[in-house]
Amino acid sequence: MPGYKxxxxxxxxxxxxxxxxxxxxxxxxxxGAVLIAxxxxxxxxxxxxxxxxQTRNPWNSExxxxxxxxxxxxxxxxxxxxxxxxxxxxxSIVSPCxxxxxxxxxxxxxxxxxxxxMPLSWSMDKIGPITRSVEDCALVLGTIHGADGxxxxxxxxxxxxPPHRDLRTMRVGYVEEKTAAGDRPELKVLRxxxxxxxxxxxxxxxxxxxxxxxxxxxxxxxxDDLLRQGKTDGLNQWPIIFRKAQFxxxxxxxRANRIRTLLMKSMDELFTKVDVYTGGNDxxxxxxxxxxxxxxxxGFRKADKKEMPTAIRFTGRLYGETxxxxxxxxxxxxxxxxxxxxxx
Length: 344
Hints:
The chain is of the alpha+beta class. Helix content is 32%, strand content 18%. It has eleven helices and twelve strands. An eight-stranded mixed β-sheet has the order 5-7-6-11-12-10-8-9, with helices on both faces. The protein has a two-stranded antiparallel ribbon with strand order 1-2. The longest helix is centred in the last third of the chain and has 21 residues. The two termini are 32 Å apart.
């Protein structure tokens, strides 16, 4: 936003101002939204620590809000703003929303233009809304999605809301766990909603965690000048990552992306069987494949003598945000955990 500092949470950029208006911000402004705050991010989109300190969880101020969309999740959960924008490359919407009890949507890669957003990994970065409810996520997405001619990866693809499909026709997969399906409370809720439940297995034939080097190499490329200038103080773990990435051979980066393509094909096959699924350790996997995910409050647990929110995630097919949000909305309305607020 012109006239406001855009610091990326990092000391080397603490006085940075940009003359351009990000596409997502411009579209919100044109729709009537009013910018009332620029919120914090962990330094260069890592965690909740930035050059001003640590962003706190409104449920427990002794705990950080997680990140890197640390300020948006904390501010929304605390009721300071009606909604906010976050960005995700590897968990940066999902993680703080889970920690702070907010509702967040990571859209399909390319669904929302990233023009004006800090680049980290050009093949993984995504912008999405952080709100109190699934309904609000849908309203914000309806405003910000679509191509703009400025982000070459942003595309036009239909998004309709409210959904018109009968929930009973939805095929919802669930990743099997040690706990029997009949004893999992989230599946009981889904069963009562009338969806068609199907057990699934996520692709496990490829070394997903090793593919994180794609993010690391791309981030090191983006901030190569910063590293060469020695401006690394206060950048959390990034300097170590940047230095390590300098020694990744081009062959390994390309091999990783070839395996990534195989993962994408495996996920395409999975989504011939279901429309949406829940469960599984899939945050890196689905950020690599570009699939959308919505996270929402799912109860509470006792920690440090405080009631802390827990979360559930639903993942949808590429550009399947309508069905994804429809299932998440029905679940949210059936459980009502999003109506709880942090203590004053």
